[in-house]
Design goal:
Layout: H1 2-26, E1 27-31, E2 46-50, H2 53-56, E3 64-68, E4 76-83, E5 88-92, E6 95-98, E7 101-102, E8 118-122, E9 127-131, H3 141-144, E10 147-148, E11 152-161, E12 167-168
Antiparallel strand pairs: 1-2, 2-11, 3-4, 3-11, 4-9, 5-6, 5-8, 6-7, 9-10, 11-12
Length: about 170
């Protein structure tokens, strides 16, 4: 009986250690709060965030990422990378240009487009420019500036809830 209890305790401790390592360094479950990424992601969607992706690679234009909010790193947001370090971003009447090339953003419906102007600005080294897909309902780099790479938690890989709309990104 004693040996069996010791075996169970070892198994549970091992499982807890593995789970902690996976959550700390590998993957994280997240929930979307708000409509800033609509229609791609909806309020209360559940996501799997790959925290390893940017330990071995770099965020790329069009990636959907989870990041610490630069003005309050206790909060996290989900946004889309629009531009990388060295890129020049300009927004004219809501149309986004990266290095003077119009951004292919057909994932943004007409009624979700803003009509603001911004820039041009060059993205500093080690930083990214992010935006929500619901452009007229998103707090993003247009409002609070560039995101340092160290604030990007990981790449959104999967929407797993609700099940009927599950998809890999």
């Amino acid at each position: 009986m004693k040996d069996e209890i010791v075996a169970w305790v070892k198994t549970l401790v091992s499982a807890a250690v593995y789970a902690t390592l996976i959550v700390t360094f590998g993957f994280q479950v997240a929930r979307v709060e708000g409509q800033s990424m609509a229609p791609t992601l909806a309020d209360q969607d559940r996501l799997i965030v790959n925290k390893l992706a940017y330990r071995i690679g770099e965020p790329r234009r069009n990636d959907i990422v989870m990041l610490y909010y630069p003005l309050n790193p206790d909060k996290s947001f989900v946004k889309r990378v629009i531009a990388e370090e060295g890129d020049t971003v300009r927004i004219i009447d809501g149309h986004v240009y990266v290095n003077d090339i119009p951004l292919k953003d057909d994932y943004v419906p007409a009624d979700f487009r803003s009509h603001d102007d911004w820039g041009p600005q060059v993205i500093p080294e080690g930083s990214y420019f992010v935006m929500g897909d619901h452009r007229n309902n998103s707090s993003d780099s247009r409002h609070w500036g560039f995101v340092p790479k160290k604030y990007i938690i990981g790449k959104v890989q999967l929407r797993w809830w609700p099940v009927p709309t599950a998809r890999v990104f």
